[in-house]
Automatic annotation (TrEMBL):
Protein's name in the database: Alkaline shock response membrane anchor protein AmaP
Superkingdom of the organism of origin: Bacteria
Keywords: Membrane, Transmembrane, Transmembrane helix
Entry's transmembrane regions: 63-84
Name of encoding gene: amaP
Species: Streptomyces bikiniensis
């Protein structure tokens, strides 16, 4: 799914770029006095985008300007959504696993995330764990968020994460390496009263 979205994104970006370059180039050509096709609406530097007649044609129609504003607003929202989507990290849908017989098996990325979360959450001192996989299916990367109990030592939590949960994941999938970014946060708790 991620590959399909990436291709659609590239195609849309390419088409938008071609349209903008063609429009901009032809407007610049007309403004510079170069020859443009006869059907092109602007033929010289003195032409305007909308003539007075074009601007006043729909003045008496009460629905025209609200529709124009709504369509332009929708286009702005779609462009913002597209821009924000560029910065989101896509989760890995599947991980390629060497099955040992020369063939490649596929493991769902969510299944591996669930196992890693369960392993990490079962550690002593870890209240909650969240795991997301990114990267390529043949070279996944893990992002782990651990919420630690008040008594937990971060150094011990990281060492146990590397020696147990991540080691088990590498062994189960046959990966030689699983680069991991770990973020630790302490669980909120009330201060103890000392008598």
């Amino acid at each position: 799914m991620t590959v399909v979205l990436r291709r659609v994104n590239r195609v849309l970006l390419g088409l938008a770029g071609l349209v903008l370059v063609a429009l901009g180039g032809s407007v610049l050509a007309a403004a510079a006095g170069l020859s443009v096709p006869s059907w092109w609406p602007w033929s010289g530097p003195s032409d305007v985008l909308l003539t007075t007649a074009d601007r006043q044609r729909w003045r008496d129609e009460g629905w025209w300007w609200p529709v124009v504003i709504a369509v332009l607003g929708l286009l702005v929202l779609l462009a913002l959504w597209w821009l924000i989507a560029q910065f989101r990290r896509a989760r890995l849908a599947e991980v390629a696993v060497d099955s040992g017989d020369g063939e490649e098996a596929v493991l769902r990325g969510r299944a591996l995330e669930d196992v890693l979360e369960a392993d990490a959450a079962s550690q002593d001192g870890v209240e909650r764990a969240r795991v997301s996989l990114t990267g390529r299916r043949t070279a996944p990367r893990a992002r782990v968020k651990l919420r630690l109990e008040p008594y937990a030592a971060p150094v011990d939590a990281l060492a146990t994460l590397g020696s147990q949960a991540l080691a088990n994941a590498r062994a189960a999938t046959g990966l030689s390496a699983l680069p991991t970014e770990a973020r630790l946060r302490a669980a909120k708790h009330r201060a103890r009263r000392v008598a």
